[in-house]
């Protein structure tokens, strides 16, 4: 049971009438009477019976509400009954006998009762046992019980006080949000928004900037107002409710509505909220100035001004973070380049160089023959380091590809001769040379390639004197002076110096762009991590000396080849083959073989003994070797040597006998292989038959009356008596590669007479025929 008690601090003496008794010896004794020391009232559980105390320390209880009254004192077990009266004991309205007590001991009496509402206080009267016992009034205000209806007093009327609480909660939310929203915006950020933000953002930033420049004054104002407002909320809630409810309500209200909600909004929209409430902030800065301004000046003196500048490292990380979260993807490329440009100054040559193992070099003893020139062309480099004595660590000069423009591969000139004649400038730099300094040298245009080495002991030597340089800065100063005169300072390397790589202007640009610049000839696509291009991205057939398609022939060479073929076989004459069909057949079947170092011994086989072949070969440039394994004999053949002419006779025979010409082949009893660069014409069976069919078909459409004897014609059209209907005639003549074109011509034939000869009288200007001529 919840109870609130009052304990009397002074002993209450009760003057009772007593009768004196004298014993045989003459002693006089007094009669023992009860003494009341104090009174306490307890409320029932869940009810508000006991209210409190008056200013005179009278107990206040709710009228007509049962309460427990507890009386404390001495010799209370001698009490016969008690009463409560509003005047004197003789007119008491409540008489409660000892039998109604819930508890009676020598020091305590408990009883339950309710008190009606009255103007005067209820006073306690006590009656002791016996006939001579008197009913005495306990005249102490601290034992009186008051039942007058009391009204709680508040600071303001309830409606006004609730309105004030709403305003205070709003102010708490505002200043809590401004504390986060304004103070997290630095002066530099506001200036940046003014210059680069949208029109609305710039306007808001201009409004906030003047007060944000008063950093500590603004901070003190916000904190002072926030603390005062939160304290006022707690006091007003305590006045409206009890202590526990006030504590819970004020804590929850300030947390939810004064901290979490406003700060979550202002962390994203602080600029807009701060600009729209700027007049409120200025007002409270003025009101709190007597307190906030002195404190802010003390803070300025002790702590100093704000530090809002971004150094290079922070700015780089800020740019990286702007795209790491998956946002601003459209700016990813620009940010990548900006980061690369800013990090460029922190890197040195060894960070971007191509490792020496991946550098393409030539020995000064190499011969510039066809194989070497082919290797240079396919590697695609325009500047090639040249080393001596077979040691890749001893690079002495550079070979430019443009130096080879007038070199004849048949002259077998050594690399050393070309390099010494041109005397290209070679720059050797330290591995720790900063990239900006190297870029400045490259921009002068004297050279765009430099070798990188580990610098341990190095000396500069000239014809006049020798200077020992103890540090890298002195070396770079001297070499920079020499580069201005376009002369290369000779460097004398000690045995401990080692070349570790190569760096070019392209490497520096890649580092700035943060992306690899890959051309069609690059084999290493990342010179730092040594990632190589996948095989399918290059023409493996060309790089590894296999047979491949070649460029078309020149006009003069085409005429020579045409005349040669016409003289060799009637197939290629104008009578049987259209000029455009013959030209396209030749140009699309020009092939070549290119060899590089490491493949000369094996070569490329064009024919193999005992292996059936379906192509005719005419060598145009270069040489090839013919070998007869059965008789162990071989000889070399050159231009205008042909092989597989038997195929032409088989094609003619197959067409006359109405057999499948596409299966025509022959089996050579020799090997034909290429060990040097060779260019040749190949005529597959299918290509020849296709050209003949197209030519014959076009000729019959243009001049249907012109005919020749099938016995003398090596390319019969198979009209009439062949068992083929007009539905399959055009498709047969044009072959499987022209089914759509054949279908269009067939539609024209179906609309004509049933006679095939009439069907061939299609006008030469028809769309199908025009497309057929274009195909030729």
TrEMBL record:
Residues 154-335 form the CNNM transmembrane domain. It holds the Pfam family CNNM. GO terms for molecular function: transmembrane transporter activity. The chain crosses the membrane at residues 162-185, 218-237. It comes from the Eukaryota. Keywords: CBS domain, Ion transport, Membrane, Repeat, Transmembrane, Transmembrane helix, Transport. This is Metal transporter CNNM2.
